[in-house]
Specification:
Helix content is 30%, strand content 28%. The chain is of the alpha/beta class and 370 residues long. This is Zinc-type alcohol dehydrogenase-like protein.
């Protein structure tokens, strides 16, 4: 019997020209209705082969306001390694909260997207992640990807963009249209993914940005993104800030260790100033340190809206759409520090190792499937 190779959404299938064998029909149907997924089942060091494994799962179907996205690229964030190190689910948890891909199917309640749309998003921590060939995601937290970027480049942006945007413009209350221009912002963790976006968003709002970085590569990175000053987080921050003329700052965005910097943040924040943090504390912090200055501390958790289904969930889709426009006109610079090719258990383990090393600058992206 003659055979031909057909491709079903990028997957090669060997098919008889005339199919008479029911077993072959079932094999083809299984391939079409299933997908590859990379999962973690129990807390293991990333060096362990079983820390991330490849399995086959039924391909989901879109319902409600969901989009079924064919994932083309993913990016790594600290949340991936944290969840991997704490998960206890023998069925396997699909990690991944940054993706770019193509809409394959839309739910009956979807209003703003169509099959074939190229999109990018961070997803929802309560649902299966992007380390799979297909993913369901609520349309309200999705946007069309920047037209000028390939899928891998686009995948670098969603989670860190949402986190930085909400931290600066919502939690700190910085006016992105410029009325706070000239005010000072200290970014702790400037060379990381969130810091890389926060520097740029703050500069767009006209702020004077002071970013922390310790190594030559990370100092060069934050300056290239627009930071006005760089201070070494391995040395006294208060002393360095005073030396460059900022004994106190209007705003602080801490994208690193909240516990370690709590005392110095209370010391250098201006009266009536605002602080935002994203890393949970290991023990209660002393809020009393902020009382005399009437300073404000806020948490930023970019999954709040999707996890708790807040009425304004669509804010995240809208801000990603606006960011895509800024990227396309060149007002937001690339934030990719490293790239890997082909999404697989092996490459994801390598990516987790890099994320856990503490030396990654910017974002690490992985493009394409094996």
């Amino acid at each position: 019997m003659a055979l031909e190779v057909v491709r079903y959404f990028g997957r090669a299938i060997l098919r008889p020209v005339i199919i008479q064998d029911s077993l072959r029909r079932s094999d083809i149907q299984r391939i079409i209705s299933h997908m590859k997924a990379i999962v973690t089942t129990r807390p293991l060091a990333v060096e362990e082969v079983d820390s991330l494994i490849e399995i086959e799962r039924p391909k989901p179907r879109a319902s409600g306001r969901d989009l079924l996205v064919r994932v083309q690229a993913v990016a790594i964030n600290p949340v991936d390694t944290k969840v991997r190190a704490s998960v206890a689910n023998t069925d396997g948890v699909i990690l991944g909260w940054d993706a770019a891909g193509i809409v394959e199917e839309v739910g009956p309640e979807v209003k703003g997207f169509y099959r074939g749309d190229e999109v990018y998003y961070a997803g929802d921590i309560t649902r299966p992640g992007s380390n799979a060939e297909y993913q369901l995601v609520d349309e309200r937290i999705v946007a069309r990807k920047p037209k000028t970027l390939c899928f891998a480049d686009a995948a670098a942006y969603p989670l860190v963009t949402i986190t930085a945007w909400e931290a600066l413009y919502e939690r700190l209350g910085i006016d992105r249209h410029g009325s706070d221009a000239g005010k000072s912002l200290l970014i702790i963790g400037g060379a990381g993914g969130v810091g890389s976006m926060a520097i740029q968003l703050a500069r767009l709002a006209g702020l004077t940005v002071i970013a922390t970085a310790s190594r030559p590569a990370s100092r060069e990175w934050v300056l290239s993104l627009g930071a006005n000053h760089v201070v070494n987080h391995g040395e006294s921050l208060a002393g360095q800030l005073a030396k460059i003329g900022f004994p106190e700052v209007d705003f602080i965005a801490n994208f690193n260790n909240t516990d370690s910097y709590w005392g110095v943040m209370a010391e250098v924040i201006k009266p009536l100033g605002k602080i935002v943090g994203i890393v949970e504390t290991s023990s209660p912090v002393d809020l009393g340190l902020l009382k005399t200055k009437s300073a404000t501390f806020s948490w930023e958790f970019m999954f709040t809206r999707s996890k708790l289904q807040t009425p304004d969930m669509d804010v995240q889709g809208k801000l990603l759409a606006e960011t895509a426009g800024l990227i396309d006109v060149g007002r937001i610079k690339p934030i990719i520090g490293e790239r890997l090719e082909r999404i697989s258990a092996i490459t994801l383990r390598k990516a987790h190792q890099r994320a856990e090393s503490g030396t990654l600058v910017g974002k690490l992206v992985i493009g394409g499937w094996q």
